[in-house]
Design a protein that fits this description.
The protein is of the alpha/beta class. The chain has two domains: about 1-200, Transcription Regulator spoIIAA, CATH 3.30.750.200; about 260-328, no CATH class. The chain has helices spanning about 1-10, 30-40, 60-70, 85-90, 95-110, 125-140, 155-165, 175-195, 210-220, 245-250, 265-270, 280-285, 290-295, 310-315, 320-325; strands at about 20, 50-55, 75-80, 115-120, 145-150, 195-200, 205, 230-235, 235-240, 260, 300-305, 305-310. Strand 8 and strand 9 form a beta hairpin. It is globular, with a radius of gyration of 21 Å. The N and C termini lie far apart (about 40 Å).
Length: about 325
C-alpha cells in the first residue's frame, strides 16, 4: 500500500481523471482507512464513476459505507455462478443467498450501479444450470452484467488438467467450446429480454449504465494505471509497470518503458469489441480490403453505413477476426 500510494503521489497528472477502477485480486479486502488514503491521492473527486471489484461474502455495512464515503459509486461483484456445485469448484465461498443479501446492502447504502460477473463454461455447467444463474440475475435486476467465456489457459491449474486429460478441479466436466458458446448465446438472448443489452463482447447493460471506465479502453482514450503489472496509455504510447510485486516494491515501476502504439491495428483489434463497431478511415478500408471482404462474405462482419461491426456469429469467433487485423 505504501508503494502504491507513493507511485500515485509522484505521478504528474496532465489531465484530471473522470473515472477510477480498483481491480485485480480482491481490492474489496483493503482496509477502509487505507483505501480512503489511497483515493485521496487521485484528483477529480467526485468522479463520474469509481468502481471497486469485490468478492461476494466480503461485504459489510461498515465497509460499503466507507467505500461510498471514499468516492466509490459502482461495485462489480465476482459472482461467476449462482449454482452451489459450480461455485464450490471455483474456490469461492459465497452462496446465491449471500449475493442477494449483499446486493440489497449495496442498494441500502446508496450504491445502485452494480455489475454481476458470470462465467460461461465452468466445470459441470450445462444449459439447465446456466439458466438457473440467469434466473437469479433476473430477480436481482442489476443494471450491468459481464459474461466471460472460460478460456483454457495452460498456465492455470484447471487449464493444465484439461490439456493433460487430468481429473482434478473438475476438468473432465469442463464443457467443450461449442457448449460454452451455446451458454453465451443463451445469456445474450436472456439478458436482452431483461433490457440488458450487449454493448461489448463480454459486457451487457441497461441504457445509460455502460461502464464509463472500460469504454475508455475500447475507444482508445488515455488512462493511467498504478500497481504491479499495471498498464498505461497516453493516447500515443503504452507503458507497463513491473510485473512482479517484488520488482514493483523495488520502485521499478516502469519496467518496459514506453512503447509506441499502433492506432491502425488497435482501432480494429480493440474497437471491434464494441457493439457499435468502428468507423474505419478511407486508408483502413483499402489496407484491410481483403480481410474485410472475406469476413463480410462469411457473415462475421457487417457494414452499416460507414461503420463496421461484428455480427452475432462474429462475436463467437471474435478471436479469429480480431487476430486477423492485428497481424495484417
Amino acid at each position: 500500500m505504501a508503494a502504491l500510494q507513493r507511485e500515485i503521489q509522484q505521478h504528474q497528472w496532465r489531465w484530471q481523471p473522470e473515472t477510477v477502477y480498483l481491480g485485480g485480486g480482491t481490492p474489496s479486502l483493503i482496509e477502509e482507512r487505507s483505501l480512503s488514503a489511497l483515493l485521496e491521492r487521485v484528483p477529480g473527486r467526485p468522479w463520474l464513476e469509481a468502481t471497486i471489484e469485490a468478492a461476494p461474502g466480503t461485504l459489510s455495512r461498515e465497509r460499503v459505507l466507507a467505500w461510498r464515503d471514499a468516492g466509490i459509486n459502482r461495485v462489480s461483484l465476482g459472482v461467476q455462478s449462482f449454482v452451489q456445485r459450480e461455485i464450490a469448484r471455483t474456490g469461492r465461498k459465497h452462496t446465491a443467498t449471500i449475493v442477494v443479501r449483499e446486493v440489497d446492502l449495496l442498494r441500502e447504502c446508496g450504491i445502485e450501479n452494480i455489475n454481476i460477473d458470470l462465467i460461461a463454461g465452468l466445470s459441470g455447467q450445462d444449459p439447465s444450470s446456466w439458466r438457473e444463474s440467469l434466473d437469479w440475475v433476473e430477480r436481482l435486476s442489476p443494471p450491468h452484467v459481464s459474461v466471460y467465456m472460460l478460456e483454457i489457459d495452460a498456465d492455470s491449474r484447471l487449464g493444465s488438467e484439461v490439456l493433460l486429460n487430468g481429473r482434478r478441479y473438475g476438468a473432465p466436466e469442463t464443457p467443450p467450446d461449442d457448449v460454452t458458446a451455446e451458454l453465451y448465446e443463451i445469456a445474450a438472448a436472456r439478458l436482452a429480454a431483461m433490457d440488458i443489452r450487449r454493448y461489448e463482447i463480454s459486457n451487457f447493460a441497461r441504457t445509460g449504465w455502460e461502464s464509463r471506465h472500460n469504454l475508455k479502453y475500447w475507444r482508445l482514450e488515455p488512462y493511467v494505471g498504478f500497481g504491479a503489472d499495471a498498464h498505461s496509455f497516453d493516447g500515443e504510447r503504452r507503458r507497463q509497470n513491473a510485473e512482479t510485486v517484488s520488482a514493483y516494491l523495488d520502485g521499478n515501476w516502469t519496467a518496459t518503458g514506453f512503447q509506441m502504439a499502433n492506432p491502425d491495428e488497435e482501432r480494429f483489434f480493440i474497437g471491434l469489441r464494441l457493439s457499435e463497431g468502428i468507423r474505419p478511415k478511407p486508408e483502413d478500408w483499402q489496407r484491410h480490403d481483403a480481410s474485410i471482404r472475406r469476413f463480410l462474405s462469411e457473415g462475421l462482419l457487417e457494414r452499416r453505413g460507414d461503420r463496421l461491426r461484428l455480427t452475432d456469429r462474429g462475436v463467437l469467433l471474435s478471436n479469429e477476426v480480431l487476430q486477423e487485423f492485428l497481424a495484417a
